[in-house]
Amino acid sequence: MSSVFSKELVADVAREMKVADLQNATIGDVLLVASRLEELTGIPFIRMDQGSPGLPANKVGIEAEKKALDAGLGAQYPAAAGVPELKKAASRFVKAFINIDISPRACVPTTGSVAASFGAFIACTQRIPGKNKVLFIDPGFPIQKSQLRILGIGWEYFDIHDFRGEPLRAKLESYLSKGDIAAIVYSNPNNPAWICLEEEELKIIGELATRYDAVVMEDQAYFCMDFRHEYGRPYQPPFVPTVARYTDNYILMLSASKIFSYAGQRIALACISDVLFDKQYPALAERYEDSGVFGPTFIASILYMITSGCTATTQYGMAEMLERSVSGEINFVEDVREYERRASRMKKIFTDNGFTIVYDRDVTQQVGDGFFFTLGYPGMTGGELLLELMYYGVSSISLSTTGSEQQGVRACTSRMREALYPVLEERMKAFRKDHNIINEELRMKNRFA
Fold first, then answer.
1. Which of 37, 264, 402, 439 has its CA 20 to 30 A from that of 218?
2. What is the DSSP code string of 78-92?
3. 59-327 is classed in which CATH architecture?
4. Beta-strand (E) ranges in 285-371?
5. Where are the domains positioned within the chain?
6. Where is the Aminotransferase class I/classII large domain positioned along the sequence (predicted)?
7. pLDDT digits 0-9 by tens, 333-392
């Protein structure tokens, strides 16, 4: 074989890092093993595991944060509901790019979308007695299920692969009709598959969320990054698709991590519909001994207990980036279009060498190129493919860890750089050659068995 790392070395490092089962490893575990192999050998990995931004942080945010620090704002506790400048900017941003009206008071800063979902899971599952489960339209972000484990909240999930378009209605209703689903969660564009829910599907989700009184938690971490469409032009169509056009039961989670490459500063927004924000729930009032109104309870009685607000100066940085985007001074879509180019080049290398794209279509068109894509290889499960790719110096995560029922791995484009394309091509040519030999040996063995 012409693999980069021996099976024995990979197994030894996995044991050293206390990773019991590499085929079903978490993102963090894969990262540990890949980093340790690089450290021991000096051989670079093609890092497709962690979805960390691979572009410089937006300078507008950096300068605004510096200005806020110089003004002495670091000395004061931030308001639990967020600084007014950010809340107003968020409301304008949502209007400019989604064409949805959400008042500033219902735009709530959070320390990343992970904090937003953690708080929202609590609020949504406690608002109505008996509605205490979360439904995931998978594949999805594994950390959200880890949050539910911490909170002791139950969940249901299904892989949307075979339920695109109108079939989604019956599948959703089979869960919602039981009466115990408090929230519906998905990302759009999707992590890990990069599929995008279309208007027909969002309408179905919205209608059923209203009928069964479930809150839709729409994760827009990759906002405007469906590069097949000309999103990102303030106050001009096309506007970003959202369930918010079809229900008042929604929380939109908008993060600075990807669109502004601002992940290190941990800042996002939970944009709650005004109707939901103002709705009173007796169960919340009884539990928290407050008004029981969803928005204020979410902010003061839940989120504040988790993070005590967001770093004040980071909020000013986010506010400035949103304002400059609305004015057209920042074109954040073009700033991150590099991910589209990387995905296109990486996909070609893999498919030229026998790989397939697992989630390859939306309802009406081919899936686009962007931050993530999915890979399969004939005859291999996702776990087997993850492990085999490790031997060739390529790290990924198995789709099985994301709620997918398809066999394959997630590939992230963010850490790819120019010097690594020929390295990836060489390694995947070797992968194909070696596995063609293995497959031929198996065919011959079976022929004479």
1. 264
2. PPTT--HHHHHHHHH
3. 3-Layer(aba) Sandwich (3.40)
4. none
5. 7-44+337-447, 59-327
6. 59-355
7. 999 999 999 999 999 999 999 999 999 999 999 999 999 999 999 999 999 999 999 999
Residue 414 CA to residue 343 CA, distance in Å, equals 9
SS3 state of residue 292: coil
Q: Quick one: residue 108, left, alpha or beta (phi over 0 = left, psi -120 to 50 = alpha)?
A: beta
Q: How far apart are the first and last CA of the chain?
A: 24
**What tens digit of pLDDT does each residue of 255-303 get?**
999 999 999 999 999 999 999 999 999 999 999 999 999 999 999 999 9
Tokens read off for 230 = 């000309």
**pLDDT digits 0-9 by tens, 112-156:** 999 999 999 999 999 999 999 999 999 999 999 999 999 999 999
**Distances from the Cα of 316 to the Cαs of 74, 133, 154, 322, in angstroms?**
11, 36, 37, 10
From residue 370, how far is each of 188, 198, 228, 241, 398 by CA, in Å?
Answer: 12, 17, 10, 17, 19
Among the ranges given (25-29, 174-178, 313-317), the one the predictor scored with the smallest mean pLDDT: 25-29
CATH number for the domain formed by residue range(s) 7-44+337-447: 3.90.1150.100
Query: At 257, which amino acid appears?
Result: S
Beta bridge partners of 253: 219, 270
Residue 438 token pair: 């293995």
pTM of structure: 0.94
Residues 6+ away with beta carbon under 8 Å from 72: none
